[in-house]
Amino acid sequence: MSFDETKLSAFLDGELPDAEAREIEAALETDPALQAQLQALMEADAVAQGAFAEMLTDPVPAALAQAIHDAPVGAVANTPAPPSGRAWLVAASVVLALGLGGVSGFMAGYNQGTSRGVELAAAAPPAWLADIADYHRVYAGQTRHLVEVGADEADHIETWLSKTVGAPVRIADLRSHGLTFEGGRLLVAAGKPVAQLMYTDAQGGVVALCLLQSDSPADGFTTRQIGDFEMVSWGGDTANFVVVGDAGRADLEAIAQTAAIDV
Questions:
Q1: DSSP state of 141
Q2: pLDDT one-digit tens code per residue, 154-181
Q3: What does pTM read for this prediction?
Q4: Domain check: are 256 and 143 in the same one?
């Protein structure tokens, strides 16, 4: 049985009349295609919410944190309970949208009680990191055209990218990690210019150091995986930085720590 996306969306939101909702519930029990359709709709909703990921990293008010912590198991704090017949579907959509990691990270932060307050982990990475991951997927596979300007013009790279990005760009010395500076290029992420400095190791692996100007730089180091890449991001005085390398690269956090000192 097929249902259009408008009806399925209304079903997930608990807005259908009981008779129509029961019809969908019955079909879901035996129709794999409908189950897949509903799953795809829920995943699309999660992607849409990713546009607000940076907002979700703001500290959660203490009162809201307490309400979530004290809420009965299976209920969403400060939200009217959905009709019991569809409770499992509403709960599933919430878990998928936030991501299990975000929920567990939030509760861990609440229980530990950091001095900066409770923070809610984002369901998706900030838009600029997702854009940089897309660029890295393209350029890391290049050899002759890995960079726009080669390492032999290091002074020009720093001057050019600093002026374009609007924040100081300094080439980090990462030789202690077996990395050779190859040059730089200019990207655009989340509508802003981004400086990308490219490094390679003895095995041909590519590590990029990127930065974009920010009036509200991130606090502390954050490690996340986007597709095939691992990313370690942090904030400086006037910019946000990220080091990008292949997923599973064991030294990426150490590289980021060194880069943060140099830049």
A1: T
A2: 999 999 999 999 999 999 999 999 999 9
A3: 0.55
A4: yes
